[in-house]
């Protein structure tokens, strides 16, 4: 009797477990179909399952990705769009100020070759590259995923424009034989210019003979670079327009007048 009772107890437990599993599976199927466990819409259990299913079964934007990018005039800007579980959905970049479609996946849809999109697979990031950033490039950009309905992530591009000036008056008068020092100051620059070239009447000034000309560049933290052109013993033919031209930036000019000593 004891053995039979134990068998009946085990069989009853198995039947109860099976009934419980059937009930759970029925609830999940009802939720995935938009219904609760009782056949009607809603229900706390339905909302709970929907919430978690929604997070992990389709594409979503990584909330840790930056949505505010700052670049300096003339440099390259990189706007990231980190999308998890993208699968085979397409990704588009759109410029919001004119609703112009810039790229779709790796294809570019604008005549401006400065724009290009590429995928960094290791980080699930579709990045919009803007080469040689111009002041007019500042604004809002939309990263759009081709789901139904569409999903969008917005990135603000800020463009910093450095200031360039040659210290002193726009026209400089010096006596022949004296020493002339022209100082070009670049401020509000996030990145130091790779070089500062000097030009005299359109021709680049070289300092191969330091007895006549000396060119120096100094970086002053946090955002200033100073370029110095020194002319020793200037003559009348050294008169003219002098301009300093930092890499990827506009130029500043001054007119030098060398006066005869006689």
How would you characterize the overall build of this protein?
There is one protein chain. The protein has 262 residues and is α+β, with helices and mostly antiparallel strands. The strands form 4 sheets. It has a 6-stranded mixed beta sheet, with no helix packed on it. Strands 12-19-18-14-15 form a 5-stranded mixed beta sheet, with no helix packed on it. Strands 1-3-8-7 form a 4-stranded antiparallel beta sheet, with no helix packed on it. The chain is elongated and about 85 Å long. A hairpin with a 4-residue loop joins β4 and β5. Helices cover 17% and strands 42% of the residues. The model is unreliable at 15-54 (pLDDT under 50).
Keywords:
19 strands, 262 residues, alpha+beta, elongated, 17% helix
Write a compact overview of the structure shown:
The chain is of the alpha+beta class.
Topology of this structure?
Layout: H1 2-32, H2 44-56, E1 60-61, E2 68-72, E3 77-84, E4 91-95, E5 100-104, E6 107-108, E7 115-120, E8 125-130, E9 139-145, E10 151-160, E11 163-166, E12 171-175, E13 180-187, E14 196-200, E15 203-204, E16 213-220, E17 224-231, E18 240-246, E19 252-259
Parallel strand pairs: 2-10, 12-19
Antiparallel strand pairs: 1-3, 3-8, 4-5, 4-9, 5-6, 7-8, 9-10, 11-13, 13-17, 14-15, 14-18, 16-17, 18-19
Helix pairs in contact: 1-2
């Amino acid at each position: 009797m004891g053995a039979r009772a134990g068998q009946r107890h085990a069989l009853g437990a198995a039947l109860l477990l099976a009934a419980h599993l059937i009930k759970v599976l029925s609830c999940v199927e009802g939720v995935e179909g938009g219904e609760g466990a009782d056949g009607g819409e809603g229900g706390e259990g339905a909302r709970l399952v929907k919430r978690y299913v929604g997070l992990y079964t389709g594409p979503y934007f990584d909330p840790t990705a930056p949505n505010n990018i700052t670049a300096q005039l003339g440099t390259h800007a990189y706007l990231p769009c980190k999308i998890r579980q993208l699968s085979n959905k397409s990704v588009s970049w759109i410029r919001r100020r004119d609703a112009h479609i810039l790229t779709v996946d790796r294809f570019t849809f604008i005549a401006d070759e400065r724009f290009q999109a590429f995928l960094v697979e290791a980080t699930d990031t579709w990045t919009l590259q803007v080469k040689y950033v111009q002041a007019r490039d500042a604004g809002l950009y939309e990263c759009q995923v081709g789901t139904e309905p569409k999903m969008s992530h917005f990135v603000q591009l800020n463009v910093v424009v450095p200031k360039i000036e040659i210290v002193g008056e726009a026209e400089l008068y010096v006596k022949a034989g004296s020493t002339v020092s022209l100082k070009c100051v670049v401020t509000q620059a996030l990145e130091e210019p790779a070089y500062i070239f000097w030009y005299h009447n359109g021709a680049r000034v070289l300092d191969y003979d330091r007895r006549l000309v000396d060119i120096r560049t100094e970086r002053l933290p946090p955002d200033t670079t100073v370029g110095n052109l020194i002319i020793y013993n200037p003559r009348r033919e050294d008169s003219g327009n002098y301009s300093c031209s930092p890499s990827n930036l506009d130029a500043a000019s001054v007119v030098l007048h060398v006066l005869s000593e006689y």
